[in-house]
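Teaching assistant's notes for section 4

Start the section by putting this record on the projector. Ask students to predict, before seeing the second block, whether TetR/AcrR family transcriptional regulator will look compact or extended. Collect guesses on the board.
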Amino acid sequence: MKAEVSAMDLLWGRGVRGSRGPRPVLTVGQIAEAAVEIADAEGLPAVTMQRVAQRFGFTAMSLYRYVPGRAELVALMVDSAMGVAPAVDAAEGWRPALRRWAGHLRDVFRSHPWVTQATIQARPIGPNELSWLERAVALLGGSGLAGGERVDAVMIVTGHVRNQVQAEIGIAADDGVHLAMSLAETLRERAADFPALTEAAAGGAFGPGDTDGFAFGLECILDGLERRMPT
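Reveal the predicted structure now:
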């Protein structure tokens, strides 16, 4: 009889299948890839055990032989979508290297927008996702920051990347240009009530050219980290 496996077992290849029962014809990797395809096309809520099983001509109950539930499936999906973190050349220093790392992470989040939702809550972490943290923490290895500070720094950068991509997704879904124009018009009508925002809008905020929040925020974070490093 097959022993119950956890998400960590599946992510790290520790699941043990008993000798009885039919021979497996799928791998958890194939199942995760199929689920990622559904999420990329239709969003995370569209991913159900039944939908994924149908990709293989199975019933949902048959899929439970491989993955015990949807929560475990989502954990597998995240690790599959993240992939192994690309190598980043640190020869130019930690700052440009961490900037490139953040750019790579942004590309992943943009390619799989649902990952920004799936990675907010506490969850089991697999080897691919952990490789991203490993790469970034290593880039700060000679910075003089303590171990906990290096990890915290990477989590701050990760949060910024996630928030910016989520904002991009929201703008695309809600017609951000129309909303910005509506806000600018409202500020003109209520300038006396919101003088600081009205002044900011006059200086380009909420306009078509106000699109570089990712770079600005990232540089602010990197500036702060640099000031924390021993001289």
